[in-house]
Every structure is written in structure tokens, then in C-alpha cells.
């Protein structure tokens, strides 16, 4: 509570000075005395540790000048940190009633009030505040509003904001967000054509191509699935582990296995370990196991990887039948180690999981969870 006093003393001093100056001009001595006395009363309550009454007194004195707005904002922020949202809201609402506020200050208070509402779960009130600000092209308001729609799974409203104000969506996270909103709505309504509306957004968004490929795959339209997933493989190779096995099935279903191998040969230099393992599988299928072993060994020397090591053991077991069972036994230990490792990791906050989430459950960023990399990854 002592920090409250430090915060409020300058407010009281500034207020006394302003009122003193004004009183000389407009003879407001009486009012000044009254409010100063109320201030003293409020501070006394605080000193006496009667916090509730003290704060009520001070909040009720808010019809002060614009000079003290900053102090009140700090005070409200402190209430919010303490979880006293009703007080933070009260201060912000009273501040907004001050007639002398300039536009930037007013927007600052509106944003702060919307944040209080969000924290208090009063999404409707927050939305109302924020929509006004978004119309005034306030980007901070747009981000908060978009987060509310994400939190409430209101994909339709988010898309509607994007369609009304597309030029405001300049930040990468907002672009990824809106693309994922289209995907969520398309899946919810089972109208995949909605995804096509966003597929050309000017950023490397992963999910639309992935979902379109997956939907085609389920419908056994393998040609279309290949088309979407090939584009995705070229655009965002780090996501290859998510769909490479199904992509291979597509080629096989269409009797185009040789085209799949050509694709793998083309991508092997820049691809991760799974592409390299697919390449080894191809070499083995054409009786070039020795070449596969030397390729994988050289690759692991450059970039050690536990999955690669396990596959190398598989290849060695094929070539060395006499010690095959022993190698298999070692490999089963390696595989049980791999099973303990998370397949996905958020590149923003480090959250790890066995599932691919399009929005990180921890930091809520869109498409920040990618297949794990490095020694234990892909
Ligand atoms: Zn995260």
C-alpha cells in the first residue's frame, strides 16, 4: 500500500497547484478546499490501512484536470495487476468522462479500459470499445479485438473485420491469424472453398495448403492432394514431416512412385532428416543399400540426428545378418528413447508437444509450433 501513497502524493500536489492557480482566476477557492480536504481524508484512510474507503475517496475525486491523467492511469494499472479489475474499470470509465482529453490520451484510456474488460471476461464491453478504435485505424485495438475473437472462437467476426479493413492487417501474426480463422471456419462449416479465399495472402502461411491437401487426400483426390502438398513442401519445407507419408501414399495410389522419388531427389539437399530417410528408402528399393549407408553416414557426420541414427542401424542390420539381432536390440532402445521426445515445439515460447497445434496453447501465436529440429527432431 505504501507505493499507492507515493503514487497519489504527486496527484494531490499537482491538483492542489492547479486548483490554487485556477482559484486566483475563477474564484474556485471553496471547491479547491473541499477536494483537497477529500484528498487528505482518502490519504488518511490509506495511512490507517483502511484501504477500501481510502481508494473510494480518491477514485471519487476524478473530475480533475488532464494533467493528472497519467497518474490515474498508473494507479489503474496497479489495481489491474492486483486483480482489482472493478477499480481499474471505474478509474478508466471516469477518466473517459473528462471533457478536456486530447485524442491520443482518450485512445490510450479506451485501450486500457478494453484490456480491463478482457481480463474481467466482459468481452462484449471490450468489443464495443475496440470496434470504435479499429474504425479509427488503431492497430493495438485491432490486435486486442482479434485476440478476443480467437479466445471466443468467433472466426466469422474476425474474418469480417479483415474484410472491412484489410490494409490494417500488416503484422505477420495478424496475417497468419486471419488465414487460420478462414481455415477454422471452413472446417466448422465444412465449406473448404472458404480457404481458397485466403490462399494468396502475401505471407508464407502453412495451414490453408495443408488443409486443402488433407481434404483432397480424404476424398481420395490424390492428384489435388499432391498439387497442394507439393506447393507446401517447396514453400515451407520445415513442415514436411507432417504430411510426407501421406504425400508418398498419393503418388503410390496413382502409380507415380517414380515421380515421388524424383521429388525426393530434388529436395534431399535442403530437406530435413525425413526427406533424407525417404531417399535412403528409395536407394534400398533399387538395390543400392551400400550407397544408402554411406549417404546416411556422411549426412549424420554433418548433422547428427537420433532418427537418422536409428535408420542407419536398420540398414546395418540388413547388411550384417550375423549381428542383425544384436543391432535390432540396440535399435529398439534407441526407438524407445525417440518415443519420449516431443515431435513439435513452439519457436516463439518453447512449448513442446506430441501434437501439432496451429495456435500455440501456451503463447497463442499462430503457426509458431513447428516439427522439432536438431538432434532429437526431424
Ligand atoms: Zn508458444
Task: Explain what the structure shows.
It is built from 19 helices and three strands. The chain is elongated, with a radius of gyration of 31 Å. With 378 residues, it is mostly helical. It has a domain at 341-378. The chain has a three-stranded antiparallel beta sheet. The site of zinc ion has 9 residues, from loops. Zinc ion is lined by residues 346, 348-349, 351, 360, 362-363, 365, 368. GO terms for molecular function: metal ion binding. It comes from Pseudoalteromonas ulvae. Residues 344-371 form the LapB rubredoxin metal binding domain. Keywords: Metal-binding.
How much beta, percentage-wise?
under 5%
Rg measurement, Å: 31 Å
Report the span from N to C terminus.
53 Å
Sheet with most strands: 3 strands, antiparallel
Total count of strands: 3
Strand order of the largest sheet: 2-1-3
Poorly predicted runs = none
Protein structure class? mainly alpha
* Shape type: elongated
Helix-strand topology string = HHHHHHHHHHHHHHHHHHHEEE
Amino acid at each position: 500500500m505504501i507505493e499507492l501513497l507515493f503514487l497519489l502524493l504527486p496527484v494531490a500536489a499537482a491538483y492542489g497547484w492547479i486548483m490554487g492557480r485556477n482559484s486566483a482566476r475563477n474564484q474556485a477557492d471553496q471547491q479547491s478546499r473541499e477536494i483537497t480536504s477529500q484528498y487528505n481524508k482518502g490519504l488518511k484512510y490509506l495511512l490507517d490501512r483502511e484501504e477500501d474507503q481510502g481508494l473510494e475517496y480518491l477514485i471519487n475525486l476524478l473530475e480533475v484536470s488532464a494533467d493528472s491523467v497519467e497518474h490515474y492511469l498508473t494507479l489503474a494499472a496497479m489495481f489491474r495487476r492486483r486483480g482489482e479489475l472493478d477499480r481499474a474499470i471505474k478509474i478508466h470509465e471516469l477518466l473517459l468522462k473528462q471533457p478536456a482529453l486530447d485524442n491520443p490520451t482518450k485512445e490510450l484510456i479506451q485501450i486500457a479500459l478494453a484490456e480491463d474488460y478482457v481480463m474481467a471476461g466482459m468481452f462484449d464491453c471490450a468489443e464495443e470499445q475496440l470496434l470504435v478504435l479499429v474504425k479509427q485505424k488503431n492497430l493495438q485495438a485491432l490486435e486486442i479485438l482479434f485476440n478476443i475473437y480467437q479466445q471466443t472462437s468467433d472466426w466469422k467476426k474476425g474474418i469480417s473485420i479483415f474484410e472491412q479493413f484489410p490494409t490494417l492487417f500488416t503484422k505477420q501474426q495478424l496475417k497468419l491469424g486471419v488465414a487460420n480463422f478462414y481455415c477454422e471456419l471452413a472446417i466448422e462449416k465444412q465449406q473448404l472453398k472458404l480457404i481458397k479465399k485466403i490462399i494468396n495472402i502475401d505471407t508464407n502461411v502453412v495451414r490453408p495448403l495443408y488443409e486443402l491437401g488433407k481434404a483432397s487426400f480424404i476424398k481420395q483426390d490424390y492428384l489435388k492432394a499432391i498439387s497442394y502438398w507439393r506447393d507446401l513442401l517447396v514453400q515451407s519445407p520445415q513442415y514436411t514431416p507432417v504430411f510426407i507419408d501421406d504425400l508418398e501414399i498419393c503418388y503410390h495410389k496413382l502409380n507415380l512412385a517414380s515421380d515421388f522419388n524424383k521429388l525426393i531427389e530434388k529436395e534431399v539437399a535442403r530437406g530435413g532428416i525425413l526427406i533424407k530417410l525417404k531417399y535412403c528408402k528409395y536407394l534400398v528399393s533399387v538395390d543400392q543399400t551400400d550407397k544408402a549407408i554411406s549417404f546416411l553416414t556422411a549426412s549424420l557426420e554433418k548433422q547428427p540426428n537420433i532418427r537418422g541414427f536409428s535408420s542407419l542401424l536398420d540398414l546395418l542390420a540388413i547388411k550384417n545378418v550375423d549381428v542383425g539381432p544384436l543391432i535390432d536390440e540396440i535399435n529398439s532402445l534407441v526407438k524407445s528413447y525417440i518415443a519420449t521426445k516431443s515431435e513439435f515445439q513452439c519457436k516463439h515460447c518453447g512449448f513442446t508437444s506430441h501434437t501439432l497445434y496451429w495456435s500455440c496453447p501456451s503463447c497463442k501465436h499462430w503457426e509458431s509450433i513447428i516439427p522439432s529440429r536438431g538432434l532429437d527432431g526431424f
